[in-house]
Amino acid sequence: MSKITKEEVEKLANLSKLSLTPEEVKLYQDQLTEILGYVERLSKVDTRAVEVKGQVTGLEMVAREDVTKEYSCSSDNILSSLPNREKRYIKTKKVL
Prior knowledge:
Blueprint lengths: L5 H10 L6 H22 L31 H6 L4 E2 L2 E2 L6
Antiparallel strand pairs: 1-2
Helix pairs in contact: 1-2
């Protein structure tokens, strides 16, 4: 099993913009080494007989087909009902 070095933990902490105490470096060094040990064990498992799946819940994507509709309101009708407009534009207060 490969062991994470103190320097690797410090480099990761630096990339993550974290400042770690020496005790935290040691703690994370041990934890990351243990995690990599689990990954190493998983990589040795024979998965040749396992079917490849994108997800395992059995749920399927169900979406309606896009359908365009004609609406009875024209843009002129909508614009005519607005209190603040200028030609074909809606007037609003300045937003900064």
